[in-house]
Design brief:
Distance between the termini: 80 Å
Number of domains: 2
Radius of gyration: 39 Å
Number of helices: 14
Low-confidence stretches: none
Order of helices and strands: HHHHHHEEEEEEEEEHHHHHHHH
Shape: elongated
CATH superfamily of the largest domain: MetI-like
CATH architecture of the largest domain: Orthogonal Bundle
Structural class: alpha+beta
Number of strands: 9
Mean pLDDT: 84
């Protein structure tokens, strides 16, 4: 009888899961769970708009007809877009360069002042102001009217300090009463006059409040002898209170116009010059016999100096860049100052002991040691400048908006600001993205190398 072998238990034992592997798997799932909201938000706010904009740029303005690269070709044929590209280039070249240099100088100088913290705080405060608010502030500061624009108020004040303003910018002769000339002067007598003949030069257009306080009642000069070589006259406001009086004649209630420059002209040359007194009277002496023309030079009627046209076509881009510098100077100074604080003082002290001047230390030690920080600040500002929109849109007036446009504002205007061509606007947005990406990649690589 053969024995039947007893049933043997299965010796192939199962391998127990590795606890460490399970922990890593759990950590990965947990990490995905935490990152998922950020990824969804990134996809909704960044990836989807970029993809949609690229696809939309391949269609026409209505979005119904596929046009391929036609919108991109239109960019280089549109004068307004080319002007926006030119302005963006000016921004990229000027603003980051000036800001980096200014931030470096201020960071170095603040180390030598007693109230460095307060100084940095004041310069950094504009960063707390939005570009919209900064644009409104500088739109008012750049106003042409000196009574509203602070910059032109300063410019006009300095100008008037060194050069006298015109005496009567609004004055003009009463038509048909002895004086003629174009608007703003000069005004000359219509008939020749001779020495010994009194001359009355009546003007209108001067508000009562604009007449100097020293003005007295106008007095008509008496006739003199021609042999004496004297030519006398009066410059007066040919307007009496209440509208009374005779036009072209000196009436009792009419005021003289003191300070008015008067010229006696003969054969195209100025023979004599006089200045009207408090009662408006003037007198030329030593004149040769003959006929003269009495003239009121245009300098008497020049419009008052009102400063620079900051928001005109020629200066609007530099003016907006100036507003941008005001906002971002503190940012550049603080970042460069943080890098300067990490510079080893031993190198600076050793250079001073060796007899190096402060200028040599700045050029040959401080700047090279700060090169990585300066590069990061410069590239960061380039990225920011490429996207500038608020300042340009708020500060530039409508008539010169095209002269100040950059790519971002041009993109908005083409798409939503009246152009109604979202195909071309999307193409501009893709071009702007392609211009910004290299600077962003460069900055990311710099950060990674600094952490390695």
């Amino acid at each position: 009888m053969t024995d039947t072998p007893a049933a043997r238990p299965d010796t192939g034992a199962r391998t127990a899961p590795d606890p460490r592997r399970r922990a890593r798997s759990r950590q990965r799932r947990l990490a995905v769970l935490f990152v998922l909201p950020a990824l969804l938000l990134l996809g909704a706010l960044v990836v989807y708009p970029v993809v949609f904009s690229f696809v939309r740029s391949l269609f026409d303005a209505s979005g119904d007809r596929f046009v391929g690269a036609a919108n991109y070709a239109a960019i280089v044929h549109d004068p307004a877009t080319l002007k926006a590209i030119r302005n963006s280039t000016i921004w990229v070249v000027v603003a980051p360069t000036v800001l980096t240099g200014l931030g470096l100088v201020l960071a170095v100088l603040t180390e030598k002042v007693r109230w460095a913290t307060a100084f940095k705080l004041v310069l950094f405060l504009p960063m707390a102001v939005s570009f919209l608010a900064a644009g409104i502030i500088f739109r008012l500061a750049y106003e042409q009217d000196p009574d509203r624009g602070v910059l032109n108020a300063v410019a006009a004040g300095v100008h008037d300090t060194f050069r006298d303003a015109a005496a009567y910018p609004t004055a003009r002769p009463r038509p048909g009463h002895g004086l003629a000339g174009g608007a703003g002067g000069p005004y000359s007598t219509t008939d020749p006059v001779r020495p010994g003949t009194p001359v009355g030069l009546g003007l209108v257009g001067v508000a009562p409040g604009a007449v100097p306080a020293s003005a007295r009642a106008a007095a008509a000069p008496a006739a003199g002898a021609e042999a004496a070589g004297t030519l006398a006259g009066v410059v007066y406001l040919d307007f009496a209170p209440g509208g009374a009086g005779t036009p072209g004649a000196v009436d009792p209630d009419e005021k003289g116009l003191p300070g008015m420059t008067v010229e006696a002209v003969r054969d195209g040359r100025v023979a004599a010059t006089a200045t009207a007194g408090p009662d408006g009277s003037f007198r030329f002496t030593g004149l040769s016999p003959g006929a003269y023309t009495v003239r009121l030079p245009a300098a008497n009627f020049a419009a008052p100096y009102e400063g620079l046209n900051w928001l005109g076509p020629a200066l609007v881009t530099p003016a907006i860049i100036g507003a941008y510098l005001w906002v971002w100077t503190g940012f550049a100074m603080v970042l460069i100052g943080a890098g300067l604080a990490a510079v080893p003082r031993e190198a600076l002290e050793a250079a001073r002991v060796d007899g190096a001047t402060e200028g040599q230390i700045f050029r040959k030690i401080t700047v090279p040691l700060l090169a990585p920080v300066l590069t990061v600040v410069f590239v960061t500002l380039v990225i920011n400048v490429m996207k500038v929109f608020d300042l340009v849109y708020v500060i530039a007036p409508g008539p010169v908006q095209e002269e100040a446009n950059v790519l971002a504002t041009r993109m908005w205007l083409v798409s939503f600001g009246g152009g109604d061509d979202q195909g071309l606007g999307s193409a501009l947005s893709i071009v702007l993205l392609l211009l910004v990406v290299p600077a962003m990649v460069f900055n990311i690589r710099r950060f990674r190398r600094s952490r390695a």
